[in-house]
Design goal:
two-stranded antiparallel sheet; 6 strands; 8 helices; four-stranded antiparallel β-sheet; alpha+beta; 184 residues
Length: 184
Protein backbone atom coordinates (compact mmCIF):
# COMPACT_ATOMS: atom_id res chain seq x y z
CA UNK A 1 0.00 0.00 0.00
CA UNK A 2 1.28 3.44 -0.93
CA UNK A 3 1.91 6.10 1.71
CA UNK A 4 -0.79 8.72 1.94
CA UNK A 5 0.04 12.37 1.24
CA UNK A 6 -1.75 15.11 2.99
CA UNK A 7 -1.04 17.85 0.41
CA UNK A 8 -0.50 18.34 -3.30
CA UNK A 9 2.65 16.97 -4.86
CA UNK A 10 4.65 19.34 -7.04
CA UNK A 11 7.49 18.40 -9.32
CA UNK A 12 8.92 21.94 -9.48
CA UNK A 13 10.74 23.40 -6.44
CA UNK A 14 9.40 26.54 -4.81
CA UNK A 15 10.72 29.79 -6.31
CA UNK A 16 13.18 31.87 -4.26
CA UNK A 17 10.68 34.72 -4.20
CA UNK A 18 8.19 32.68 -2.28
CA UNK A 19 10.82 31.32 0.12
CA UNK A 20 12.42 34.67 1.09
CA UNK A 21 9.87 37.48 0.75
CA UNK A 22 11.56 39.70 3.38
CA UNK A 23 14.93 39.44 1.66
CA UNK A 24 13.41 40.54 -1.63
CA UNK A 25 11.84 43.58 0.05
CA UNK A 26 15.15 44.52 1.65
CA UNK A 27 17.01 44.07 -1.62
CA UNK A 28 14.50 46.25 -3.47
CA UNK A 29 14.79 48.97 -0.80
CA UNK A 30 18.60 48.84 -0.99
CA UNK A 31 18.59 49.13 -4.78
CA UNK A 32 16.13 52.03 -4.65
CA UNK A 33 18.31 53.85 -2.07
CA UNK A 34 21.40 53.33 -4.20
CA UNK A 35 19.62 54.66 -7.30
CA UNK A 36 18.47 57.76 -5.39
CA UNK A 37 21.99 58.39 -4.08
CA UNK A 38 23.54 58.11 -7.54
CA UNK A 39 20.87 60.41 -8.93
CA UNK A 40 21.46 63.01 -6.20
CA UNK A 41 25.23 62.96 -6.81
CA UNK A 42 24.73 63.33 -10.55
CA UNK A 43 22.41 66.32 -10.01
CA UNK A 44 24.89 67.95 -7.62
CA UNK A 45 27.85 67.70 -9.96
CA UNK A 46 26.05 68.34 -13.26
CA UNK A 47 27.62 71.34 -14.95
CA UNK A 48 30.30 71.77 -12.27
CA UNK A 49 33.92 72.32 -13.32
CA UNK A 50 35.98 69.12 -13.33
CA UNK A 51 38.13 70.21 -10.37
CA UNK A 52 35.02 70.77 -8.27
CA UNK A 53 33.78 67.28 -8.98
CA UNK A 54 37.15 65.67 -8.32
CA UNK A 55 38.38 67.65 -5.31
CA UNK A 56 35.43 69.54 -3.90
CA UNK A 57 37.35 72.79 -4.44
CA UNK A 58 35.87 75.53 -6.57
CA UNK A 59 37.87 76.76 -9.55
CA UNK A 60 39.70 80.04 -9.06
CA UNK A 61 37.35 82.00 -11.35
CA UNK A 62 34.42 81.51 -8.98
CA UNK A 63 34.13 82.79 -5.45
CA UNK A 64 33.70 79.95 -2.95
CA UNK A 65 30.39 79.91 -1.16
CA UNK A 66 31.90 79.57 2.33
CA UNK A 67 35.18 80.07 4.12
CA UNK A 68 36.89 77.27 5.99
CA UNK A 69 35.63 76.93 9.57
CA UNK A 70 38.66 78.28 11.45
CA UNK A 71 36.81 77.99 14.76
CA UNK A 72 37.46 74.23 14.61
CA UNK A 73 41.11 75.11 15.32
CA UNK A 74 40.13 77.85 17.78
CA UNK A 75 41.14 80.61 15.36
CA UNK A 76 39.50 83.66 13.82
CA UNK A 77 39.46 84.21 10.04
CA UNK A 78 41.00 87.70 10.21
CA UNK A 79 43.93 86.42 12.29
CA UNK A 80 44.54 83.57 9.87
CA UNK A 81 44.39 85.90 6.85
CA UNK A 82 46.97 88.27 8.40
CA UNK A 83 49.27 85.41 9.40
CA UNK A 84 49.08 83.80 5.96
CA UNK A 85 49.84 87.13 4.25
CA UNK A 86 52.85 87.73 6.51
CA UNK A 87 54.12 84.17 6.05
CA UNK A 88 53.76 84.32 2.28
CA UNK A 89 55.49 87.69 2.12
CA UNK A 90 58.46 86.59 4.24
CA UNK A 91 58.86 83.23 2.52
CA UNK A 92 58.61 84.97 -0.87
CA UNK A 93 61.42 87.34 0.19
CA UNK A 94 63.44 84.45 1.67
CA UNK A 95 63.70 86.47 4.88
CA UNK A 96 65.10 83.79 7.20
CA UNK A 97 64.98 85.93 10.32
CA UNK A 98 61.33 86.93 9.86
CA UNK A 99 60.21 83.39 9.00
CA UNK A 100 62.08 82.12 12.08
CA UNK A 101 59.98 84.44 14.28
CA UNK A 102 56.80 82.75 12.98
CA UNK A 103 57.85 79.30 14.24
CA UNK A 104 56.90 77.68 17.55
CA UNK A 105 59.97 76.11 19.20
CA UNK A 106 61.08 73.43 19.56
CA UNK A 107 60.13 72.25 16.07
CA UNK A 108 60.97 68.91 14.48
CA UNK A 109 62.24 68.91 10.90
CA UNK A 110 64.25 66.56 8.71
CA UNK A 111 67.88 67.37 7.93
CA UNK A 112 69.77 65.02 5.60
CA UNK A 113 66.90 62.54 5.97
CA UNK A 114 67.08 62.45 9.76
CA UNK A 115 64.56 63.92 12.22
CA UNK A 116 66.04 66.82 14.18
CA UNK A 117 64.56 69.08 16.84
CA UNK A 118 65.44 72.75 16.52
CA UNK A 119 65.12 74.76 19.72
CA UNK A 120 65.92 78.33 18.65
CA UNK A 121 65.39 80.78 15.80
CA UNK A 122 69.17 80.78 15.26
CA UNK A 123 69.18 77.02 14.66
CA UNK A 124 66.24 77.41 12.27
CA UNK A 125 68.04 80.14 10.32
CA UNK A 126 71.23 78.03 10.11
CA UNK A 127 69.27 75.29 8.30
CA UNK A 128 66.72 77.51 6.54
CA UNK A 129 67.51 76.45 2.97
CA UNK A 130 67.24 72.75 3.87
CA UNK A 131 64.00 73.23 5.82
CA UNK A 132 62.27 75.71 3.53
CA UNK A 133 63.00 73.79 0.34
CA UNK A 134 61.21 74.40 -2.96
CA UNK A 135 58.30 72.11 -2.10
CA UNK A 136 57.64 73.82 1.23
CA UNK A 137 58.01 77.29 -0.28
CA UNK A 138 55.52 76.44 -3.05
CA UNK A 139 53.03 75.13 -0.48
CA UNK A 140 53.27 78.44 1.37
CA UNK A 141 53.32 80.85 -1.56
CA UNK A 142 50.55 79.08 -3.48
CA UNK A 143 48.21 78.68 -0.50
CA UNK A 144 44.85 80.37 -0.94
CA UNK A 145 43.06 81.61 2.17
CA UNK A 146 39.63 80.44 0.95
CA UNK A 147 40.92 76.93 0.25
CA UNK A 148 42.87 76.17 3.44
CA UNK A 149 42.25 72.84 5.14
CA UNK A 150 41.44 73.28 8.83
CA UNK A 151 40.89 70.74 11.58
CA UNK A 152 41.23 70.64 15.36
CA UNK A 153 45.03 70.40 15.02
CA UNK A 154 45.40 73.59 13.00
CA UNK A 155 45.75 74.80 9.43
CA UNK A 156 47.40 72.74 6.72
CA UNK A 157 49.24 74.40 3.85
CA UNK A 158 49.74 72.43 0.67
CA UNK A 159 49.53 68.70 1.24
CA UNK A 160 50.81 68.99 4.77
CA UNK A 161 54.21 70.50 4.05
CA UNK A 162 53.51 73.10 6.72
CA UNK A 163 51.01 73.30 9.63
CA UNK A 164 50.08 76.35 11.71
CA UNK A 165 48.06 76.68 14.89
CA UNK A 166 47.32 79.02 17.76
CA UNK A 167 50.10 78.66 20.33
CA UNK A 168 50.23 80.06 23.86
CA UNK A 169 53.82 81.09 24.38
CA UNK A 170 55.38 81.13 27.82
CA UNK A 171 54.00 83.96 29.94
CA UNK A 172 51.41 85.02 27.33
CA UNK A 173 47.68 85.27 28.04
CA UNK A 174 46.66 85.06 24.38
CA UNK A 175 47.71 82.77 21.60
CA UNK A 176 49.64 83.65 18.49
CA UNK A 177 49.45 81.76 15.24
CA UNK A 178 52.73 79.96 14.68
CA UNK A 179 54.22 77.30 12.44
CA UNK A 180 53.98 74.07 14.43
CA UNK A 181 55.19 71.52 11.86
CA UNK A 182 57.24 71.52 8.67
CA UNK A 183 57.29 68.30 6.67
CA UNK A 184 60.23 68.97 4.44
Amino acid sequence: MAAAHSGPVSAAPASPRSLYPRHNTLLAALLLSLALLVSACADRTAGAPAETVMTGVESSDKAPSTLPDFSVAGLKPDEVRLFLQALQTEVGRDDRARVATLVSYPIKVRLMGQPVSLDTPAAFMDHYSDIMNGRVKRAVTQAKFDELFVNYQGIRLGRGELWCAGVYEKGQQTYRIRIIAINN
